[in-house]
């Protein structure tokens, strides 16, 4: 696709029907570990305005741990996982109570959704998340999402809401992603570094990643810093979703497409939500090793992976799971949703469709991975 101008990207954001807004802990809480109701209310006012003009807004809100640690007697954000889980259990309630109240001033309802990594990996849970979000939006509510921190452990967590917000933008087929933080824009280096310059437009986030010096969090409550925000902007751009990054006090102008913060252009056309999920969220459970011919066909982008072109199957998976498609050198070519269980596949390998039908029956005369379920990597 042609690279859009900054004006075009801002206009696309202004015209967005469905917007995912992500806000970081430091924009909602005080360093003492309590909510900052004034700033939270200001954010709600900006979102409510868009909602009341007919926009569909999903809010991905951090802040559970940062809003809870003060009440539990900690001086600073704890580092122990169990402490964090306890703080999140307390803080998430406080956060939602405040949101509930603030949105009620505008006659708007909110709906809480707490997500774990597995909800975005497993196809059925993913569909559940999507259905609930869509219904909430159809009913006029503002879904408010956070990771389910009280039950997530270090091994199985997103750990940051930046990347989660980009996945949510895919799930709800958003027209724009707005990342709100404690810095007004992306800079050429962490703003604490002398000489760092504000960037107002990123036409290609993958190029920017090579040129911009991104650092970790600048506050004592944030987690991912600019690294995870750039990753979120990259997922959005690759998914065809324009994004803007700015400080929370710029939420209103950012959603209106005003020239605040940093705008990121989409670098692809929009794909289907399912393909985007395969590309970004689905975790491969095994591997199909393609021969040279099948590798070329898959790389071409328009072919299904047939059993005739597969040399080996690795791993233990069920039909519908995601798998890697590798070439003989072990390089990943694509990710796809496989049509058969791993134990069914060895008898199918090397056989063409007619042979599959004759020897194994009609139900086996299908591609191992259909092209609609396959995404190049
Ligand atoms: N190149 C950069 N441009 C802007 N900010 C950066 C950059 N590199 C690192 N940062 C830091 O990222 C911080 C925002 O990330 P974080 O603290 O995780 O916020 P949040 O809690 O909103 O998610 C900024 O305050 C800033 O200190
Ligand atoms: N889920 C955690 C926040 C994780 C996170 O991404 O924090 P932040 O970097 O402040 O957006 C919480 O609610 O405390």
TrEMBL record:
CDD domains (alphabetical): AAK_G5K_ProB, PUA_G5K
Residue intervals of the PUA domain: 286-369
The EC number(s) this enzyme carries: 2.7.2.11
GO terms of molecular function: ATP binding; glutamate 5-kinase activity; RNA binding
Family: Belongs to the glutamate 5-kinase family.
NCBIfam families: proB
Protein name per UniProt: Glutamate 5-kinase
Organism of provenance: Bifidobacterium catenulatum
Gene transcribed to yield this protein: proB
